[in-house]
Amino acid sequence: MALDKNDSISQVNNLFPDNTSGEITPEDQRVVSTNAISSNLNIEETTDQVIKSNFETEKQLIKHAPGWRDMFGSFTNAKITGTNEPTWTKVVDDGAGSTGVYAYAFSPTVLNELWVMFQVDHDFAIGTAFYPHIHWLPDNVDTGVVRWGIEWSAAQSHSQDVFGNTFTIFIEETAPGVINQHMLAEVADPGITVPGAEPGMIILARVFRDATHANDTFTGNAIGLNLDAHFQVDRDSTLNKEPPFYT
After folding, report:
1. Using CB atoms within 10 A of its CB, is residue 203 exposed (0-12), middle (13-18) or buried (19+)?
2. Which of 38, 43, 126, 222 has a 20 to 30 Å separation from 172 between CA atoms?
3. In this predicted model, what pLDDT tens digit does every residue of 137-156 receive, in sequence order?
4. Following CA atoms 168, 174, 177, 178 in sequence, which dihedral angle do they give, to the nearest 10 degrees?
5. What structural domains does the chain harbor?
6. How far apart are CA 121 and CA 157, in angstroms?
7. 114 vs 100: CA distance, rounded Å
């Protein structure tokens, strides 16, 4: 017979057989009844805890409608070294002699380069592609083409992988003829699929303007701001903080 937590001791006492011989004292009945109710409540409390725990686990695994996010690789935080450094240059000021704001200028005549890195987030939609893109500005009104190069290598975390040989991709974009117009040069569809991409993966990247290539015809400096990557998300988090992330 199941005991409802609202049962009174007197109701529980009805479960006892007739005590005609007096062998079961009222105190015996009280102790047994109280223990029965307490045991039932503990079972119900434990059940509630298990249900709550399972709900919290399932909540982490629930996928939502696909959406997009950015991985950010600011050139301000990038590493520059060697003889091919871009020039740290003023972009704009207040028009009255302020210090202004600065960014890296990539030359139209020699190759300039810098290095950034990314980490794949825990909301990444497994099996989807990345869309690397460069935010940049032209510093003159020419309408030539800027040719950007991205050399990269990636590896899974937690001793699963090694950084192998690099791959290089190129993105070309025509300047708009407007000084300091915010441009975004992005890899075309279907994007870049990185084998084994998962949360915690690190992507190392070298960014350069391929200025000596015949396709790079823009006569001005290309002011580089960020190397970012659009990527698809389908969850808020992973079940685990390390592999296996989802089970």
Report:
1. buried
2. 126
3. 999 999 999 999 999 999 99
4. -50
5. 9-61 (no CATH), 67-233 (2.60.120)
6. 12
7. 23
